[in-house]
Amino acid sequence: MSTEGNESTHNAPSLEVHQNNSSPRNSPPPPDNEEKTIHLRFLLSNAEAGSVIGKAGSTINEIQSQSGARIQLSRNFEYFPGTSDRIIMVSGTVDDVLKAVDLILSKLLDEFYVEDGGEIDPESKIRLVVPNSSCGGIIGKAGAIIRSMIEDSRAGIKISSQDHSYPGLHDRLVTVTGTLAEQMRAIELILLKLVEDTYYQQSANVPFPYAALVYNGMNYGPNGGGGMYPNTRIPNKEERSSSVTIGIADEHIGLVVGRGGRSIMEISQLSGARIKISDRGDFMSGTSDRKVTITGSQRAIRVAESIISKKVASVAER
């Protein structure tokens, strides 16, 4: 379920807030792990990130104050590769991290999932970011550990296959689906595995390492403004500029453009590609699809195509 600077942090004010007991966990972590520090990264949409930050950082400060955990978010438009989602990292003791995640998920459930009059607990999903090398500890021999976690928590737990579209990406997504209580139990079990993993602990040193993979040379300065850093290397085949034209149904073109051109600008910034859309009535031959021409390196084109197709698919699935 992603603020300014590479690691934007909001310091918690010293104020007392009543603890939210929305989903008490089944059992406290074992005493020997309770004091160990751990971190948890997961994905948020831009809207969800805005909700967690709150006006002038008020919500994120309150969550930090209530939980004792530290919360960092990737910059606006710094997304996990292949998605349009930002990364949030919660760090602290196991117990503090679980309290903070509980508060965050409770807030998102209230704002984004709950329908009026619903009598059953709503289900949602959270996508955790876990290094590829740490996934084996969650899966276990012949899947024994993950099966045990699923039985204990009653949540759905799925681990994505490694995405080779982004050379240098060493993280996978662990999707946890269920009610809030089921998700929290599953996350607790996963954290208690990860807290024993030395390599996982070290991965907190670079919480958001994706800019180089996704931005394709577009770097953000301290004020969030884009700037191209000069590169004197001879571009390899992957980096040479080329163009691809794809067709997008006329009724979906607004998704690509966005209000006031905001969406097309975001896609361009994220991918490093230039995007041009044909005039109204100028269609791909024999179709009613508008032409979307993407120009840039092969990697930039792939990223732009992936973001555009996801935007269109999200509407088609409704």
TrEMBL record:
Q: Which residues form the K Homology domain?
A: 36-109, 122-195, 240-313
Segments traversing the membrane: none
For the keyword RNA-binding, the answer is: yes
PROSITE patterns of this UniProt entry? KH_TYPE_1
Asked if the Swiss-Prot or TrEMBL record annotates the protein with the keyword Repeat, the reply is yes
- Gene3D superfamilies for this protein: K Homology domain, type 1
InterPro entries in the cross-refs: KH_dom (IPR004087), KH_dom_type_1 (IPR004088), KH_dom_type_1_sf (IPR036612)
Give UniProt keywords alphabetically: Repeat, RNA-binding
Q: Compositional bias (Polar residues) spans?
A: 1-12
Query: Which portions of the sequence form the region Disordered?
Result: 1-35
Q: What is this protein called?
A: K Homology domain-containing protein
What is the scientific name of the source organism?
Penstemon davidsonii
